[in-house]
């Protein structure tokens, strides 16, 4: 039996429902919209692209929509921008779905190429783009990273279903990998999430409100 079921969201883009977590991989109000409005825009990807060099940490890569949205926004602004993404994901099965979908996001072909690579470290380098995916538990792979990031997309399943990634300890490890003033964006505004972020060293502010009452959360590296 498949461990995930395909579903079309309100903006026409596709997501999956995980049977293991009993939760969707994206907001059902629009998976593609979420990638642009909750991640790429609040992390100032367009503005970073003007400077010519961006480093992004994409935690919980899934179908790669958040990374793809960042590529679209950055390369539209500055086609010569150098972009380096490290992506963390622990499930080969969701990566296997990438080849079967065609979201209307520029450069999604790069995400497809990445997902087709064999092994626990998947990497593509083409012109000014470099994407590296570490396929294992993010609580372990986060310790292998040496780079300093301008932006972090933080997109696990909900704190209720996946509490191990929303801890102070994990946020602190991520915080150490960010340059001063870099932004971490996440969709959750749960009180405990915000307390853990604050205790891990972030300045916490509201993120964008996208088709619901509550905002997401942004963590600024101080
Ligand atoms: C909400 S989905 C992310 C959607 C994704 N950002 C996208 O753009 O398609 C959460 C992802 O976290 C992954 N995940 C869950 N636990 C993890 C862990 N401990 N380490 C790494 N990835 C994990 C799941 O396999 C799933 O792909």
- How widely separated are the two ends? 47 Å
Count up the domains: 1
Number of strands: 11
From the spread of the alpha carbons, the general shape counts as: globular
CATH topology annotation: Rossmann fold
Ions and ligands: S-adenosylmethionine
**Could you tell me the mean pLDDT?**
96
Q: What is the correct CATH architecture?
A: 3-Layer(aba) Sandwich
Record the strand order, biggest sheet: 6-7-5-4-8-9-11-10
Number of helical segments with 4 or more residues = 8
Helical fraction: 25-40%
How would you describe the overall organization of this protein?
This protein is α/β, with parallel strands linked by helices. It has a single domain, classed as Rossmann fold, CATH 3.40.50. Helices cover 30% and strands 29% of the residues. It contains 8 helices and 11 strands. The protein has helices spanning 31-40, 45-51, 65-77, 92-97, 108-116, 138-141, 168-175, 191-199, and strands at residues 4-8, 14-18, 23-24, 53-59, 82-89, 121-126, 129-135, 149-154, 178-186, 202-206, 217-221. Strands 6-7-5-4-8-9-11-10 form an 8-stranded mixed beta sheet, with helices on both faces. It has a 3-stranded antiparallel beta sheet with strand order 1-2-3, with no helix packed on it. Helix 1 packs across helix 3 and helix 2 crosses helix 3 (65-77). The longest helix is centred in the first third of the chain and has 13 residues, at 65-77. The chain is globular. The protein starts with a strand and ends with a strand. The mean pLDDT is 96. Bound molecules: S-adenosylmethionine. Residues 25, 35, 60-66, 88-91, 94, 137-139, 155-157, 162, 165 line the site of S-adenosylmethionine.
